[in-house]
Amino acid sequence: MKEYPSTHIRNVAVVGHGGSGKTSLVDALAFVAGSSKRHGRIKDGSSLTDYSPDEIERGYSINLALAFAEWEGVKVNLFDTPGYLDFAGEALAGIWAADASLIVLGASAGVETGTEKVWDYSRACEHEAIFFVSMMDKEHADFAKVYAQIRERLSPKAIPVEIPIGAGPDFRGIVNLISRTAHVYKPGTKTGEYDELPIPKEIQAEYERYENDLIETVASTDDTLVERYLEGKEISHDELVTAMRAAMKRRELFPVFCGAAELTFGARALLSEIVELTPAPADNPAVHAEKWGTAEKVELAERDDAPFSALVFKTVSEPHVGDVSLFRVYSGTVRNGQEVFNPARNALEKLNHLSISQGKDKIEVDLLHAGDVGVIAKLRDTHSNDTLATHAVPVVLPRIPFPEPIIHVAVEAKERGDEEKINLGLAKLAEEDPTFHWEYNPDVRQTWIYGLGERHLEVILGRLARKFGVHAIQTKPKIPYRETIKGKAEGQGRHKKQTGGRGQFGDCWIRMLPMPRGGGYVFEDQIVGGSIPSKFIPAVDRGVQEAAVRGILAGHPVVDFKVQLFDGSYHTVDSNEMSFKLAGILAFRNVSPNCKPVLLEPLADLEVLTPEEYLGAVMGDLNSRRGQILGSEPDGKLLKLKAVVPEAELYKYATQLHSLTQGRSTFRKKFKGYAEMPAEAAAKVIEEYQKTKKEKEEEA
Ligand SMILES: Nc1nc2c(ncn2[C@@H]2O[C@H](COP(=O)(O)OP(=O)(O)O)[C@@H](O)[C@H]2O)c(=O)[nH]1
Ligand SMILES: [Mg+2]
Fold first, then answer.
1. N or C: which end of the chain has fewer CB within 10 A?
2. For residue 183, which of 244, 270, 107, 277 has the smallest C-alpha distance?
3. Ligand 1 binding pocket, CB closer than 6 Å
4. What secondary structure letter does DSSP report for 62?
């Protein structure tokens, strides 16, 4: 394998909506460049970057995966990313670790939700971006329509540099507006060979219009060019390219290209454009890192002579290989076999078999230069988002701000006794996927898993089965209700037992009063004259608390109340702590039902981002979920709707919102607190509880 210095590397994240043709494009680019020997296909599961068993089975990308194409002496690293929002974390990691975004759109589908999402990520990373309108050979392919959508929904600064010749079954080539040549593909070509021909007559008018637009747009980004343009002077090819590159760097221009990746049409031209227009790591500004454990800032130039630093942007466990880490070198170089330092985990790691990745194939290399990407197996203590550096300069790089999970479900072991294995597996999966969380919820005694969507959690459980051999099934998460009291009452708890010898005796009088929400539990000792000896008083308190955990109405912990212990009696021989604890339990059971007990339910603060046209549908749906709408305000092109909604009504909300709004809306939620449940809804919960309780008693 040839060595590529920082000036001869490009790092391009291939992003877009699911099914827009990203994986096919990566395959085509690596194949026409000759860097990959076989032209893989999605259909037969042979594509270069969809190689994991879950991807082959499902037929779409789930994992961020790496490939490369060597073109014109440059190594183009390609980060193939999944398009579905469920795997947005992978797309973000790919964009973060690359230097430019190649945004792929289907020529008939155009701009979709996933396209908008990755566009946002790309903007947040201040990437230079280029668009590729693929699948020009498909029925209903319409370049002009997709271009109009890009301008309207993504950026008015997008501008075609290539236009198609023909569309659908008639698609046969592309015209480059800068070189003013037509590439007409040889029928049946397997590697994208073409004849260079004059512009076909039938698209001459269209060509002139687009060419004019391009020159005008590029010229308007540059003060001297715009003057020359207005004076009607010729602008040379080189001047155009130089101005384009400068404008792309400022994110003032986003070129649009086209083709049909599966036929390899447009692949060669696109590679040349990537090499010409996207930045080499050596062109990047210095990276702002921090000395580990201090606030000291360190500027790292993306050069070989800077101290070594690399970010692990993904770890994945692969069968027969173990954990594989994908990393981007930000500064310095790294050699095969070198020992590096992970400052955050205080761990030394040896980089044995330093490699680069061509899909599932790993190619061992001697040295990686600043800006390159590599893979390494079997690091012991290093996970996603960790920095690798040296002992001498222990820096940490900025971490990828992964999206927070938005849905959760409960899981149960299919086979009894597998619970521990499931938890071990989930912990391991959470290490490799920062958008996946899990916890055991002791309140409701369930294991909960959190992710970015239903598909995400299905994939996680599939991995659990394949990698850890345990099967878990999804169930509805139980709601951690609480109970409280709204009224005041008093009464007695008396425990007396006479059995042969020494008996048991405890007797107490308590008063129960409500506390404000969040006020907690308070116990007041108001005993005067020693009607209960002080050594037994804490036992009454404990009894009350033990009983309160079991609830009054529906078996949920009682919160926010005060107990005053104001009288009682005892027996010099038979009284002991246990008797007074039991008296406390009995007192709580006697008194609490007379205190107007109610159910409390958890509420969520909800923020829905939606295009205005769906506002009515979103609000209507939230109303039917007992939601309280607080208002809406503009947020960019969208509206941000705020509401407070009971957690119990939000089961599968992500899915419902997705289908209500064609996938155009997203939401965030945060735990808000507990509030009294309306009587009607509470009655259902209580009824359900009484029913299961009765069933259990009958079983016993
Ligand atoms: N007709 C046509 N189909 C394509 C083209 N590129 C990809 N496809 C098909 O579109 C589907 C999605 O492609 P894929 O590369 O997996 O898209 P991704 O989800 O963006 O990675 C697959 O069935 C491909 O075979 C193309 O240029 N023309
Ligand atoms: Mg894909």
1. C
2. 270
3. 16, 18-24, 42-43, 60-61, 83, 134-135, 137-138, 260-263
4. -
- The model's pLDDT over 427-458, given as tens digits with 9 standing for 90+, comes to 989 988 999 999 999 888 899 999 998 899 99
As a whole number of Å, the end-to-end CA separation of the chain is 71
- In order of 220, 415, 431, 467, 604, the CA distances from 437 in angstroms are 48, 23, 9, 18, 19
* Mean pLDDT score of the chain: 93
Residues 6+ apart with CB under 8 A from 198: 181, 182
Is the pLDDT at 71 greater than 70? The verdict is: yes
Convert the pLDDT of each residue in 303-316 to its tens digit: 999 999 999 999 98
* % of the chain exceeding 70 in pLDDT: 100
- What pLDDT is recorded for position 145? 97
Give the C-alpha separation, 583 to 121, whole Å.
62
pLDDT at position 458, please? 93
Pocket test for ligand 1, best of 14, 15, 24, 103 (most atoms within 8 A of CB): 24
- Is 44 in contact with 53 (CB distance < 8 Å)? no
Mean pLDDT confidence for 532-538: 96
Residue of 25, 27, 39, 42 best suited for mutating to test ligand 1, as the one with most atoms within 8 Å of CB:
42
Q: How far is CA 378 from CA 31, 85, 320, 354, in A?
A: 29, 29, 11, 11
Identify the three-state secondary structure at position 314: strand
- Report the SS3 class of residue 287: strand
Secondary structure in 3-state letters for 612-677:
HHHHHHHHHHHHHCCCEEEEEEEECCEEEEEEEEEHHHCCCHHHHHHHHCCCCCEEEEEEEEEEEC
Q: What is the pLDDT of residues 126-150, one digit of tens each?
A: 999 999 999 999 999 999 999 999 9
Ligand 1 atom nearest to CA at 80: 21
H helix runs in 278-336, sequence order? none
Neighbours of ion ligand 2 (CB under 5 A): 22-23, 61
Task: Look at residue 318 and tell me whether its pLDDT is greater than 80.
Answer: no
Is the pLDDT reported for residue 470 higher than 70? yes
pLDDT computed for residue 637 by the predictor: 83
| Angle between the N-to-C axes of helices 204-219 and 237-249, in degrees from 0 to 180, rounded to the nearest 10 | 60
Return all residues near 680 (Cβ < 8 A) that are at least 6 apart. Answer: none
Largest CA distance in the chain: 116
**Residue 652 pLDDT level (bands cut at 50, 70, 90):** confident
Distances (CA, A) of 682 to 483, 555, 679, 691: 10, 13, 5, 14
Task: Return d(Cα 269, Cα 680) in angstroms, integer.
Answer: 66
**Residue 319's pLDDT band (cuts 50, 70, 90):** low
350, 406 Cβ separation under 8 angstroms = no
Rounded to the nearest 5 degrees, what angle is found at the Cα of 535, between the Cα atoms of 530 and 541? 95
pLDDT of residue 1: 84
Task: Please report the pLDDT score of residue 613 as a whole number.
Answer: 95
Give this prediction's pTM.
Answer: 0.86
For 363, residues 6+ apart whose C-beta sits below 8 A from its C-beta are 1, 355, 356, 357
Interacting residues of 123 by C-beta distance below 8 A, sequence separation 6+: 251
Residues 6+ apart with CB under 8 A from 691: none
Give the CA angle between residues 358, 364, 365 to the nearest 5°: 105
